[in-house]
Design a protein that fits this description.
single chain, 6 strands
Length: 189
């Protein structure tokens, strides 16, 4: 019996990411994600919103905690995880379904990322690039140059190689597809 646990989501963060570390030093980041679904019922446009809790572990979790904020748009790939526990007050069994993200792609640049010099083209890098203070920025100077076409190396003419002649295939016998008593049992293979 085969099984598959794969989730692809694209949405916006509903709250600030909460970055924590386990006692072993592993980073874990949790946040909420909202996805909108628009549809039409009886010629009326309707919208439905789905809210999902997300958890991201390791280096990706650290990056989510650093560069994401409420409202950031992301796309993620992950798996469903069901957490079960017993309520301390009532003793009732409780459960919660959430997504464990295995790949997170940042789709827009947040203010936090811009302040730290981090720019993303649909993803993230392990380390944000170091930005220069704006007071030191100087635009590149324009240089006037005349256009010169690229030089092509001289090539000698080579006649096309002759292709070998194909051998002819013998013709198929006339009775190759006859059925019944007229067919021969000797197949010419």
């Amino acid at each position: 019996m085969a099984s598959l646990n794969k989730v692809l989501l694209l949405g916006n963060l509903t709250r600030q990411p909460e970055l924590r570390y386990t006692s072993g030093g592993m980073a874990v980041c949790e946040f909420g994600l909202a996805m909108n679904r628009r549809f039409n019922v009886n010629n009326q446009d309707r919208e439905e919103v789905c809210f999902v809790d997300i958890v991201v572990w390791g280096k990706q979790g650290e990056n989510c905690g650093k560069y994401l904020e409420k409202g950031s748009q992301i796309m993620l790939e992950g798996r469903l995880q069901l957490d079960q526990w017993q309520d301390k007050d009532t003793g009732a069994k409780r459960s919660k379904l959430r997504v464990v993200a295995e790949m997170v792609q940042f789709l827009n640049k947040s203010d936090k990322a811009g302040a730290e010099g981090y720019e993303s083209e649909g993803g993230y890098s392990e380390e944000p690039p170091q930005s220069q203070p704006q007071s030191q920025y100087q635009p590149p100077q324009q240089q006037q140059q005349q256009y010169q076409p690229p030089r092509q190396p001289q090539q000698q003419y080579q006649p096309p190689a002759q292709q070998p002649q194909r051998k002819s295939v013998p013709p198929m016998p006339d009775n190759a597809f006859k059925v019944g008593d007229e067919a021969e049992d000797d197949i010419p293979f």
